[in-house]
Amino acid sequence: MAGRSGAQRPNGAMQGKICQFKLVLLGESAVGKSSLVLRFVKGQFHEYQESTIGAAFLTQTVCLDDTTVKFEIWDTAGQERYHSLAPMYYRGAQAAIVVYDIVNQDTFSRAKTWVKELQRQASPNIVIALAGNKADLANKRLVEYEEAQAYAEENGLLFMETSAKTAMNVNDIFLAIAKKLPKNEHSASGVSGPGRRGVDLSENQQQSSGGCCK
């Protein structure tokens, strides 16, 4: 479990500084975006996950050596009718995970489109990770690992194959993003995004006001 309680030392003192970052998940419908977030935030997996409507908002922390990274996560809907809403969620985001399904070639093509859109319209320094989800179905794969890895390297993306079902690399991909994000005083934003929030699945929501790294 990515340290929900690990942000504090045993004596109750906060561990180093706290940085808050906005992270958005993008990808075709049914690739497992919500399942990845649910696994990361609550350590759970539901075989039948309802489609996200609009976007869902969750938070989770990752603890590095001297910094606690708090992710404000926007899990966006993958259906085409919600595409026009996406800029509202990735605008101002410091990180993005673009998800595809390794057993569906079309979702990989769609992921490439999302990457191009982020590179063109999102923050210039956004950290983008590519997640090939449903790695537990590797025997049915239609997207080769090497193909996706080569694409990620060409575009400067973090890349991992993940499985929300088995938890493979789920915490690892968020941790890799946390390590790559800048931790200076002005690097992260305290703005959580659209004022109208979606379903909140996280526990102990303590929203900090203002910026990060206090």
UniProtKB/TrEMBL annotation:
Sequence ranges of Polar residues compositional bias: 202-214
Keywords for the protein's UniProt record, in alphabetical order: Nucleotide-binding
InterPro entries to which the protein is assigned, alphabetical: P-loop_NTPase, Small_GTP-bd, Small_GTPase
Region (Disordered): 185-214
Keyword Magnesium recorded: no
One family name in Pfam for this protein: Ras
PROSITE patterns linked: RAB, RAS, RHO
Family indicated by similarity: Belongs to the small GTPase superfamily. Rab family.
Protein known as: Ras-related protein Rab-5C-like
Source lineage: Eukaryota, Metazoa, Ecdysozoa, Arthropoda, Chelicerata
Gene name of this polypeptide: LOC106470376
